[in-house]
Amino acid sequence: MCFATSHPVAQLVRNHNILNGSHGYSKPCEFADNPGVADTDLRGRRFSVDRETIMNLPESVLLCLFPNGLVLSRQSAALSDGGDNDEYEELYGVDFDPDCFQFVLTFFRNASEAFYGTPSSPGLYAAQQHLVEGGSPTSDFGPSSSQNPLLSKQAIIVLREELEYFSIPPKDGKAMTNSNGIANDALLELKRKCGDYLLSKRNIFTALQRNVNKENNIAEQHLIDMLCMSGFDRDDEWGYRALEPSRCCISSIALVLLKTGIVHLANAKGEKQVTIDYNQMATAQKLLLFWRKPARKCWWDGIEVNLAEAGEPDKMTKLWARRVWTLELSLVRFSTPVFADITG
């Protein structure tokens, strides 16, 4: 029950090939020969996103957006008068949370601007560019960014959770299904309350730490330790967390900048200086195992919760959750991001 790579902290289910092009296509989407802007409809909200920005997004997110590659169900007609070079608008329908998509776009844009800079303000890369050009004779990371991309690209750790939950009703006979398996109002209300309870539990590592304590899983403890050394904090919460519509499922995502050990300081004269903590850089390089190779882990989590309102007697309910984590490292390339939420 560990992430799928050869690293000792990543030995869960070997599913990363599913996310890495083993199902008949080499990449979730390919835009190289078709520059421009992609118009997407995410559950009724339209986004216009330039293709370079989309290609900077995590592979696991791209797979959710374009599970069959770029060609999805076309929701807009091609306006054509019969010519060979007619232009048309193509709208890609996507079943993905638009607020989550906006959260990811905004985080990646802010990270890119902070690292690469803007036309009016230089970024961190300008101050550390000499590391890329010259390397360090005392390091093991080679003389160029091709051998250590962490010197020249902004790295972001992407952690996603898909949580599917199952409520075991108490034995009072109120919450049940009919002969056709349709839930009655009491059972629907129970499921709603269970979803709200889980939604309020925003701490990232609580469930996994509970599993570590229960099974004494050393590999999972090492995983938590590595993530916390690389940018997360043990008390961190999910950056975005929401119930999926009409499903007993909660989707969550957390994005953090990878701690590479590159430190930017200002001396007494106000001049920027750059130093490298090579031990931290070595830890950061372990996360490169997950660059373009999203890895997954899955485990079951069973708890008993009290769903009673204030002043009511206890309503203890058994709640099972199937949690699927996807871990990935994204390296943001320099681009001028352009995106707009057309429908607000």
Describe this structure as you would to a colleague.
With 344 residues, this protein is α+β, with helices and mostly antiparallel strands. It has one domain (16-76, 91-341). Helices cover 26% and strands 26% of the residues. The chain is built from eight helices and 13 strands. The chain has helices at 51-55, 59-65, 98-116, 124-134, 185-200, 206-215, 218-230, 278-286; strands at residues 37-42, 45-50, 91-94, 117-118, 121-122, 154-168, 240-243, 249-257, 262-266, 272-276, 295-306, 316-332, 339-341. The strands form four sheets. A five-stranded antiparallel sheet has the order 7-8-6-12-11. A four-stranded mixed sheet has the order 3-1-2-13. A hairpin with a 2-residue loop joins strand 4 (117-118) and strand 5 (121-122). The protein starts with 36 loop residues before the first strand and ends with a strand. The relative contact order is 0.21.
List the defining traits of the structure above:
344 residues; 5-stranded antiparallel beta sheet; single chain; 8 helices; 13 strands; alpha+beta
Brief write-up:
With 344 residues, this protein is of the alpha+beta class.
Global Rg: 23 Å
- Quaternary organisation: single chain
Beta-strand residue fraction: 25-35%
Shape: globular
Helix content: 25-40%
The span between the termini is 41 Å
Q: Which parts are unreliable, with pLDDT below 50 for 5 consecutive residues or more?
A: 5-34, 71-83, 136-143
Spatial sequence of strands, sheet with the most strands: 7-8-6-12-11
Query: Which class of secondary structure composition applies to the elements?
Result: alpha+beta
User: Could you report the average pLDDT, rounded to the nearest whole number?
Assistant: 80
Tally of individual domains: 1
Question: How many strands appear in the DSSP assignment?
Answer: 13
Give the SSE order as H and E letters: EEHHEHEEHEHHHEEEEHEEE
**Helix count, per DSSP?**
8
**Major beta sheet, specifics?**
5 strands, antiparallel
